[in-house]
Design a protein that fits this description.
Blueprint (H helix, E strand, L loop, with lengths): L3 H16 L3 H23 L5 H15 L9 H22 L17 H7 L2 H4 L2 H13 L3 H8 L3 H24 L2
Helix pairs in contact: 1-2, 2-3, 3-4, 4-5, 5-9, 7-9, 8-9
């Protein structure tokens, strides 16, 4: 079982130590985050040929943005905001024809997946809190339906329903935004 709270505390402490100049703990943090980022990318997008490049780009983005992390705030939301944004940037470049080291796997389509857009955009902020929570737990953090349901104190069926409704609501918001351009 993943120890989210333990990771959160440890990573927050490591980043705070890095802010104070502790390069040893910062290196340990980046090593741990590399594994987490790789798992995140593979769980969201499958075994893309440029997964390792994506992980490295995300680690560099974290390094460049480390000064923006506030130790008084949770680390995990900051981390995944950086990772989502960088991953979506790389995917958009790959879909737009820009040179990104890759060989598209059969799981990667020729058009961006709306769910990737949901993760990257402001759409989550516009969803009802229970829908936002369902998507965060299952699609962004990566909990199974069962784990997310337990964490939220609801049944698996209710969690599945929330996830389906959240995706539909987010896709609807994306269609509305697409029509306003």
């Amino acid at each position: 079982m993943i120890d989210i709270d333990g990771d959160e505390r440890r990573w927050s402490q490591y980043m705070a130590a890095a802010h104070r100049g502790d390069s040893r703990l910062y290196e340990r943090l980046l090593c741990e985050l590399g594994d987490v980022i790789e798992a995140y990318v593979r769980s969201r997008f499958g075994a893309l040929a440029f997964t390792e490049d994506c992980v490295q780009e995300c680690l560099m983005a974290i390094h460049r943005a480390r000064h923006t992390y506030d130790p008084a705030r949770p680390f995990r939301p900051w981390l995944f905001a950086v990772v989502r944004n960088k991953t979506v940037d790389l995917l958009r470049r790959s879909y737009s024809g820009e040179r990104v080291p890759q060989e598209r796997s059969t799981t990667a389509g020729t058009a961006p997946d709306p769910r990737a857009e949901i993760e990257a955009g402001e759409v989550l902020a516009e969803l009802k809190p229970e829908f936002r929570n369902a998507l965060m737990l299952t699609k962004i953090i990566g909990y199974s339906i069962n784990e997310a349901a337990e964490r939220s104190g609801i049944s698996e069926t209710a969690m599945k329903s929330r996830v389906r409704r959240a995706i539909r609501a987010a896709e609807s918001l994306l269609r509305e935004d697409g029509g306003n351009e």
